[in-house]
C-alpha cells in the first residue's frame, strides 16, 4: 500500500511542464484533456447548472472550459493545495476558492453540479468514504456529480501513472469500485463512459462516441445524481 502522500504545493510552478512531458506522446497540447472532459460532461448534463464546484481543482486548468460552457454559473474551486488556489485567485479572480474541509458546512446542499477529475486516485482508500460523504452533502437534491478517473484496465494509463512524479501516491480506482463507493454514499447511478481511445493526431475522436461502453479507454467518467 502506498503511503508517500504527494504535496501538490511543491509542483505548482512545474505542474504544466510535467504534465506536458508525461502526456506529449498522446497530445501535444495538454489542454486537450481538460477540454475533452468538459465537453463530455456537457453533453451528459440534464440541466444548466447555476452553481458549479470543481472538487480538487489544482491550479484551475479545467475551469476556463467550465466557464466557457456555463458563463452564467457561479464557479467554485476546492483543493487541499493552498499554492494551487493562489494561482486560481490570481488568474481567475471571479472564481471563489476554499481549501478547509470544515468549510464544507457552509455549502450544504449548495451546488447544482460537482466536477471531479483525477482526484480519487490520490485519496487514501480508507478516507474515500468520508470524502464522498462530504461531497454528497454539498450537492443539491437532483444535482449531478461527474467523476473522471484513470482506467486501471488500460495498460498505457497504468504505465503513465507509474512514471509520473506527482502520481507517486496514486492508487487507481476501478470503475466498479468507484460506482460502489458513490452508491454507498447514497448517490443514484446514472452512467459510466470510457474515453481517450485515440490520440488527436489520428483524427478518430468522432469514433469514440460509439465506443464509450468499451472498458478499455485511457480514462472513464461516472455520472451520479443526488
Molecular structure report:
There is one protein chain. This protein has 226 residues and is α/β, with parallel strands linked by helices. It has one domain (8-225): Rossmann fold (3-Layer(aba) Sandwich), CATH 3.40.50.150. β1, α3 (63-69) and β2 form a beta-alpha-beta unit. Residues 23-27 have low confidence and may be disordered. The chain has 8 helices and 7 strands.
Ordered list of secondary-structure elements with their pairings:
Elements: H1 15-23, H2 31-42, E1 51-55, H3 63-69, E2 74-78, H4 82-91, E3 96-98, E4 111-117, H5 128-138, E5 139-150, H6 155-163, H7 175-184, E6 188-195, H8 205-208, E7 219-225
Parallel strand pairs: 1-2, 1-4, 2-3, 4-5
Antiparallel strand pairs: 5-7, 6-7
Largest sheet: 7 strands, mixed
Order of strands, main sheet, comes to 3-2-1-4-5-7-6
CATH architecture assignment? 3-Layer(aba) Sandwich
Count of all domains: 1
DSSP strand tally = 7
Tell me what portion of residues adopts beta-strand conformation.
15-25%
Q: Write the CATH fold name.
A: Rossmann fold
Radius of gyration: 16 Å
Low confidence ranges? 23-27
Question: CATH superfamily, please?
Answer: Vaccinia Virus protein VP39
User: What distance separates the N and C termini?
Assistant: 32 Å
CATH class: Alpha Beta
Overall shape: it is globular
Amino acid at each position: 500500500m502506498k503511503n508517500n502522500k504527494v504535496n501538490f504545493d511543491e509542483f505548482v510552478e512545474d505542474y504544466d511542464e510535467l504534465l506536458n512531458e508525461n502526456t506529449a506522446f498522446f497530445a501535444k497540447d495538454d489542454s486537450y484533456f481538460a477540454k475533452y472532459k468538459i465537453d463530455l460532461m456537457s453533453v451528459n448534463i440534464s440541466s444548466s447548472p447555476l452553481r458549479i464546484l470543481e472538487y480538487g481543482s489544482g491550479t484551475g486548468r479545467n475551469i476556463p472550459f467550465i466557464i466557457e460552457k456555463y458563463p452564467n454559473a457561479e464557479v467554485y474551486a476546492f483543493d487541499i493545495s493552498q499554492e494551487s488556489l493562489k494561482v486560481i485567485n490570481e488568474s481567475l479572480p471571479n472564481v471563489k476558492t476554499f481549501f478547509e474541509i470544515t468549510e464544507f458546512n457552509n455549502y450544504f446542499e449548495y451546488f447544482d453540479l460537482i466536477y471531479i477529475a483525477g482526484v480519487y486516485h490520490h485519496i487514501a482508500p480508507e478516507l474515500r468514504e468520508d470524502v464522498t460523504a462530504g461531497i454528497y452533502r454539498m450537492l443539491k437534491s437532483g444535482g449531478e456529480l461527474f467523476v473522471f478517473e484513470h482506467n486501471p484496465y488500460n495498460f498505457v494509463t497504468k504505465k503513465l501513472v507509474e512514471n509520473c512524479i506527482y502520481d507517486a501516491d496514486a492508487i487507481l480506482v476501478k470503475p466498479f469500485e468507484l460506482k460502489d463507493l458513490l452508491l454507498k454514499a447514497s448517490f443514484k447511478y446514472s452512467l459510466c463512459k470510457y474515453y481517450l481511445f485515440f490520440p488527436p493526431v489520428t483524427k478518430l475522436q468522432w469514433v469514440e462516441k460509439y465506443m464509450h461502453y468499451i472498458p478499455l479507454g485511457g480514462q472513464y467518467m461516472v455520472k451520479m445524481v443526488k
